[in-house]
């Protein structure tokens, strides 16, 4: 089937879907209605995170940043709205609902100022502040966690601030099952990669849209991080997802109140970090809003050589054109220089793990000059248009550009006492564009509430790179005085021809549909399907794939206990291996399926939330990287088998008593190559530990003379894992213990965090391994205005 036929079929499908939508809306006028409105403070500012409940019912909503709320599927008749927030007054409003109508209540005014509301939000420990599970991205539909058959974890700004997070790497380790977090090697760029459910993934999603997959970034502009579990190609496509899941960075949005904060952090390894978050309306009507987040970060390596210098600026403009149309444009500018040193082993190593090697953990083998540089410029835009009370149009655009000048240093242990130093220079450029159109409908089919997503998507990616490498020398493992002469490196680099030059240009056209039907108040079913057509212009090949998704949720106790199951599909269109122009290797698409089931609970008014899930993922036609024995430091790609990964995960988010918050997770994973070459079949894939545990708990005093004072404690345990598919060398298990104390007031915050209290010498890996920070501290001060 050629592209024109694919496109024609897509258009036909979309046309039929839109026709069905027209028919569906005829059923929307049923014996229910909608209640909507806004809650404001006494100084006429929006009141966010206010509970609006339907009396004598389990229905309700929480106000958004603009104070708005909406309660759907409300039975016909007279009702009372209960408007409440811990620490504030409670109001009761009477409202009458007619069939098929939307009732907009007059603005509800709480007798509290915006400043007082902020103070309550900051100091009130009675809210389960780590349990912010509302998201517009996981399903691209307005679904609560309890009615979503997919598992996801959210790492919010409250948790990141409490842990004094200075990197995304530190933040994402708060999600169950996350491991092998490393600044990964990829096509001449340095991007953050993690292992999830036995598979590697990156952080290349931002507000549900694609960025370049080797892009680093700073956490300063993040409102939260969403860790979405399982193969999710049905909604997110094949380019940037993994079979274990994906990580979506959600950015801070402008609000209609002038406010901001300035922060400074210092600490071990000459840490010096300055941050800014400034928000302001740009007109009196507060329809044009602006927010900018910025950071400047300097830090030495914990080893003898290496330093990081980076800065980030993220401006964000929101324009409320009218009651129906909202426009949002934001940019992300990021620059970094950092070391990129990676360790591996050869067949001459007889040691079983890194602990048995004669290696000085404080020694980098590199220099301060050998750095990898990245310049990132991303633009994102969204137009949200309310077509009617039942339909919303969402038009999204993303454009990313990353220029990389990488100077990797690959350090291979030739035996137990010698290391080969092989630098690699890669100059690369990544350009990506994505256009996405979504139609989101919420309406009734008879007495059943129905939520429907219909979308089309176009993604373009162009990459270029030039790679040069050579053996610099061989040194002793434990030589503390070995030098890396940067001038010598540059001279040799200038005389060495590149071993690879290539350009890649790919395009992906997609159409998808997802429908969620509430058969009863307790039983919800989901059915989704994606059609994806991928083409690679440089290699002149294309591939087409279908990706289904099915889910079911039964709320055994409404809003308190949900039993769920899902079938999810994932695929990746694998570009040919053109490392050798004389022998280009073509691959079939990789294909993954997941079966998952579990339970979600929420007790004591949301104070105790748990998710327990069991999953089984099978990936066929998997492509692996294997060492090239004829090419020093090189790898070949082979497509030789099937990988199975199964396990279970547990997450607990609790607020047992006022001021005490807990987030904990456990992940068990059993991965195996069930079909592969003889030397690998039956082995465990590299960088896939069996047991992973995370914990953070904190307490803040809410009353008395030490009101606002608090402390936190937690850490991570990661089981041992193999460094290679041959299962001959392991990365030792490790335990990280962290602790903090802080004093939090409405106008300022002072904090001290101690990381790796046990001074553990540990490694993380994604085929190549990286040593991680030893014991260190971070002291921070934030001033709010």
Describe this structure in words.
The chain is mainly beta and 785 residues long. Mean pLDDT is 87; it is low at 6-29. The chain is built from 6 helices and 44 strands. The termini are far apart. Strand 5 (77-84) and strand 6 form a beta hairpin. It has 2 domains: 31-123, Immunoglobulin-like; 145-784, TonB-dependent receptor, beta-barrel domain (Maltoporin, Chain A), CATH 2.40.170.20.
Structure at a glance:
The chain is mostly beta strands.
Residue windows where pLDDT falls under 50 for at least 5 positions: 6-29
Which oligomeric form is depicted?
A: single chain
Q: What is the averaged pLDDT score? A: 87
Task: Give me the secondary-structure category.
Answer: mainly beta
Tell me the CATH topology of the largest domain.
Answer: Maltoporin, Chain A
How large is the count of helical segments? Answer: 6
Major beta sheet summary: 22 strands, antiparallel, barrel
Please give a handful of descriptors for the protein shown.
785 residues, mainly beta, Immunoglobulin-like, Maltoporin, Chain A, 2 domains, 22-stranded antiparallel barrel, 44 strands, 7% helix
